[in-house]
Amino acid sequence: MMNKIRKGFTLIEMVIVLFIISLLLLIMIPNLTKQRDNANEKSNEALQTTIINQAELYSENHSDDDVTIDNLKKDNYISEKQVKRLSNLNLQKDKDTGEWTLVKEASH
């Protein structure tokens, strides 16, 4: 009997491995996308909370209820990077409760 020395993989073995890898990717990609979207949403919520807190601080420090995103940026309460992420939002203070909120700009 002659022993055959086998080198490498057969075509069917490689196809099976590629199939298994493809299945794993099909399972993982939607989960990774969902996690990225959740992270972006949480990041935006945290930024909005920070902006509202900074608006309250600015209002107290300047005894001024007319706080704008530009005022916060100009006086270094928020960074340019934060301003870019808030490009379509404005600050508004509720007259009844005194709470600050971020509202979408009215389109012109």
Protein described:
This protein is mainly α and 108 residues long. It has a domain at 41-108. The chain is 59% helix and 9% strand. It has a two-stranded antiparallel ribbon. The longest helix is centred in the middle third of the chain and has 52 residues, at 11-62.
Describe the sheet with the most strands. 2 strands, antiparallel
Radius of gyration: 27 Å
Overall mean pLDDT score? Answer: 85
Alpha-beta content class: mainly alpha
Distance between the first and last residues' Cα = 88 Å
The ordered H/E elements are HHHEE
Number of helices: 3
- Give the tally of β-strands: 2
Sheet-strand content, in percent, reads 5-15%
Weakly predicted, low-confidence segments: none
Spatial arrangement of strands, main beta sheet: 1-2
Q: Portion of residues in helices? A: 55-70%
Question: What is the molecular shape?
Answer: rod-shaped
Observed structural traits:
single chain; mainly alpha; rod-shaped; 108 residues; two-stranded antiparallel ribbon; 2 strands
Question: Can you summarize this structure?
Answer:
By secondary structure, the chain is mainly α.
Secondary structure elements and pairings:
Blueprint: H1 11-62, H2 69-74, H3 80-85, E1 89-93, E2 100-104
Antiparallel strand pairs: 1-2
